[in-house]
């Protein structure tokens, strides 16, 4: 039997972290060597011999966690939100000094979500209007969701490359927030509702028609195949990878 990959989970007591701990424990090719919560020292990652660190914590702590992992030669698979351009820039600098080390930052590990965002981005250049509605459980601390931000960025890049102008919008009088927030020129609306897990709709509108890409995560089990794919692949992809798209054969 080939050697098991030594994996650590950060945020192990959280909603996602607890699910990831179970998924790693159930995988024959992986060995869970550490499961850390907020008050545990990162030094135990070194003591445990972790090769891959899975970060499912909070936006305030994720950068320091990943920095520690990379500085100690560990690869990182990151699901935590909050990675703005400034943080990504600092991480790229760090990775340049650590050749061979890989970091995957995946705003969404659900394969259906990755596909829906990629397909919506591709289709968006054929429509005048595009807006995103993301819907989540009310315990979520950040808005808009990382997935919505990433989807808006993909859409914006695709439309810019095709020379598509901004969508029509005659609004001249607005109660604050009524039109959502603007992410790279795409309006994003955030719903927080008890009973939901993680859901997103991309609405594309043209004269007389609408195309909707909707994805629903009904259970956090939906994220685990992507987490495991990340864990198994990140060591073979040095540098920074943004989004699980690069680990899939989307053919787009
Ligand atoms: N990429 C994806 O597919 C997905 C990403 N997410 C993202 O993952 C993150 C976690 O989500 P979720 O599990 O719902 O959130 P939770 O609040 O349930 O879990 C976060 C956990 O991180 C712990 N924590 C905080 N700081 C640290 C630290 N420094 N070291 C270790 N653990 C720490 C918290 O501890 P304590 O309880 O003590 O505060 C908590 O248990 C969010 O950013 C969310 O948006 C969520 C779902 C899917
Ligand atoms: O907090 C969550 O729950 C989720 N967070 C991620 C995000 O912000 O996009 C991924 C998924 O939507 C669930």
From TrEMBL:
Q: What is its EC number?
A: 1.17.1.8
Q: Name one GO cellular component term.
A: cytosol
**Principal place where this protein is found?**
cytoplasm
Cellular compartments annotated: Cytoplasm
Quote the InterPro entries the UniProt record gives. Answer: DapB_C (IPR022663), DapB_N (IPR000846), DapB_N_CS (IPR022664), DHDPR_bac (IPR023940), NAD(P)-bd_dom_sf (IPR036291)
Q: Which domain of life is it from?
A: Bacteria
| Reactions this protein catalyses | (S)-2,3,4,5-tetrahydrodipicolinate + NADP(+) + H2O = (2S,4S)-4-hydroxy-2,3,4,5-tetrahydrodipicolinate + NADPH + H(+); (S)-2,3,4,5-tetrahydrodipicolinate + NAD(+) + H2O = (2S,4S)-4-hydroxy-2,3,4,5-tetrahydrodipicolinate + NADH + H(+)
Q: In which pathway does it act?
A: Amino-acid biosynthesis; L-lysine biosynthesis via DAP pathway; (S)-tetrahydrodipicolinate from L-aspartate: step 4/4
Q: Which residues form the active site?
A: 136, 140
The residues that hold NADP(+) are 38
Q: Which residues bind NAD(+)?
A: 11-16, 79-81, 106-109
Give residue ranges for domain Dihydrodipicolinate reductase C-terminal.
114-248
Which BP terms from GO are recorded?
diaminopimelate biosynthetic process; lysine biosynthetic process via diaminopimelate
A single GO molecular function term of this UniProt record: NADP binding
Q: How does it assemble?
A: Homotetramer.
Q: Which family does it belong to?
A: Belongs to the DapB family.
What's the protein name?
A: 4-hydroxy-tetrahydrodipicolinate reductase
* Organism annotation: Arthrobacter oryzae
């Amino acid at each position: 039997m080939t050697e098991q990959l030594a994996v650590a989970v950060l945020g192990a007591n959280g909603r996602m972290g607890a699910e990831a701990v179970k998924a790693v424990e159930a995988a024959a090719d992986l060995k869970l060597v550490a499961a850390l919560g907020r008050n545990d020292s990162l030094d135990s990652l070194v003591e445990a011999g972790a090769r891959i660190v899975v970060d499912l914590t909070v936006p305030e702590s994720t950068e320091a966690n990943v920095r520690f992992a990379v500085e100690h030669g560990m690869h990182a698979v990151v699901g935590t939100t909050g990675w703005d351009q400034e943080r990504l820039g600092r991480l790229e600098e760090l990775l340049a000094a650590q050749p061979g080390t890989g970091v995957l930052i995946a705003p969404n590990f659900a394969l259906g979500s990755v596909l829906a965002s990629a397909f919506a981005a591709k289709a968006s250049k054929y429509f005048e209007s595009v807006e995103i509605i993301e819907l989540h459980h009310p315990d979520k601390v950040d808005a808009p969701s990382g997935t919505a931000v990433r989807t808006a960025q993909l859409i914006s890049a695709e439309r810019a490359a095709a020379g598509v102008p901004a969508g029509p919008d005659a609004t001249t009088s607005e109660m604050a927030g009524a039109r959502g927030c603007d992410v790279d020129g795409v309006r994003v609306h955030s719903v927080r509702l008890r009973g939901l897990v993680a859901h997103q709709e991309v609405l594309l509108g043209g004269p007389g028609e609408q195309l909707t890409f909707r994805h629903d995560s009904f259970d956090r089990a939906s994220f685990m195949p992507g987490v495991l794919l990340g864990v198994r692949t990140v060591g073979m992809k040095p540098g920074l990878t943004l989004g699980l798209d690069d680990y899939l054969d989307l053919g787009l």
